[in-house]
Amino acid sequence: MSKNLYEQDYYLWVEDILQKIQEKKWDEMDWDNLWEEIDDMGKSQKQRLTSNLRILLMHLLKWEFQPEKRTNSGKYTIIEHRRRILEQLEDSPSLKNYLNLKFEATYQKARKDTSLETNLSLNLFPEKYPYKVEQVLDEDWFV
After folding, report:
1. Are the beta carbons of 53 and 103 closer than 8 angstroms?
2. At residue 86, what are phi and psi to the nearest 5 degrees?
3. I need a labelling partner for 33 at 20 to 30 A (CA). Which of 56, 58, 88, 112 fits?
């Protein structure tokens, strides 16, 4: 029933799994789909973190290299994405290691995306990001 339920009604499947866990009905669990969902939750957390970091880095680059185009909206975007990252790290401190590991690769994506979005030369933006993760996440830095 559960595997079919998983495909037919995801929310009802979640409710069913929670009920079985509460009642300790281990032999009735849909282990395959549960494992997949838990794995996807971890991946989703990582994707959300790097997405927010990429957006933050893009806006920091625009803030630094297009000072004539600074707006309150741009400032708000920097503040908001910092806040999202910091809140996520507060909820899941172990993601800090992942953030450090992915920082340079995420910067490279942000650098390219910023160049495309602004029509500024990619060479204008430093090949290696000159700031540390701690600075980027510091709520009092650069705005």
Report:
1. yes
2. -65, -40
3. 88
pTM, full prediction: 0.84
pLDDT tens digits, 60-91: 999 999 999 999 999 999 999 999 999 999 99
What CA–CA distances, in Å, run from 142 to 4, 9, 88, 107? 52, 47, 21, 17
Q: What is the pLDDT of residues 89-142, one digit of tens each?
A: 999 999 999 999 999 999 999 999 999 999 999 999 999 998 999 999 999 887
- The distance of Cα 122 from the centroid of its chain, to the nearest Å, equals 24
Name the phi and psi angles at 14, rounded to 5.
-60, -45
Residue with tokens 């927010």: 52
For the chain, what is the radius of gyration of the CA atoms?
20
Domain ranges of the chain: 2-137
Q: Which two tokens stand for residue 53?
A: 């970091």
